[in-house]
Design brief:
alpha+beta; 131 residues; globular; TATA-Binding Protein; five-stranded antiparallel sheet; 5 strands; single chain; 5 helices
Amino acid sequence: MTQLITKPSPHSVDVTLDRLEAAIKGAGAVVFARVDHAKGAASVDQVLRPTQMLMFGNPMLGTPLMQAAQTAGLDLPLRVVCYQNASGDVHLSYHAPTEIAATHSVPSDAEILIKMTGALDNLTNKAIAAD
């Protein structure tokens, strides 16, 4: 069973991901892509509540994980999705890094996974902080 971590945000989807992007860049990581799924849906005459995904990584964390298991490259860079639900509430969600361990036979207590888990928690907490 995949562990999905979900956190509520007091901000809009756009603002939440802007804040996450700033936190990522401030931490020295790289944002590779920002995908607006609602915009994609609109391009084919479909409706989707605000939903965006940010893909990012830091070679200082990703490289050691791939050195332990090169197949982890299937799950890197990391991704966070931010969406507005039917009630209008905004949430951030991402897979726990320990899921990468389980999928790719890396010990779940590997130091790199502990660092990755802490980094994701810190970055997403900055994005959803009420200020």
